Amino acid sequence: MTTFTKDGRPKPTAIWGVPDGDKLLVITDGGSWKTKRINNTPRVTIAKSGVLGKPKSEEVEGVARVLPKSETQRVYNAVLKRYWYHAPWFYVHSIVRGGIDKVHVGLEIKPAS
Questions:
Q1: 2.60.40.420, 3.40.50.620, 2.30.110.10, 2.30.30.760: CATH of 2-111
Q2: Where are the domains of the chain?
Q3: Nearest partner of 112 among 26, 7, 41, 33, judged by Cα
Q4: DSSP labels for 12-38?
Q5: pLDDT tens digits, residue range 68-105?
Q6: Staple 97 to which of 43, 52, 72, 103, CB 3.0 to 4.6 Å?
């Protein structure tokens, strides 16, 4: 996923997304730079990538938003279900940092109109 700064500079970062109809759900740190950039500029681009983040498809324009805290657990559970083999690490990481709701936020990405 690529987010954009206020002045339009691209900032790519690898994410783990979970399809949800025509949307993509992502769990991330609430204080991350990508979350801050999405709050300022919801425009993003998305591309499939390999394990190390190397793009494997063309980018698609999208619009992202930070979901309300009440949605965090649902998104977190969806990500854990999809990436179950990383679940123990995800869970421990969340607990050590203060708990799922304290540390994480859910993101929703929709195709741009």
A1: 2.30.110.10
A2: 2-111
A3: 41
A4: E----EEEETTEEEEEEETTSHHHHHH
A5: 999 988 998 898 888 777 767 666 666 666 666 667 89
A6: 103
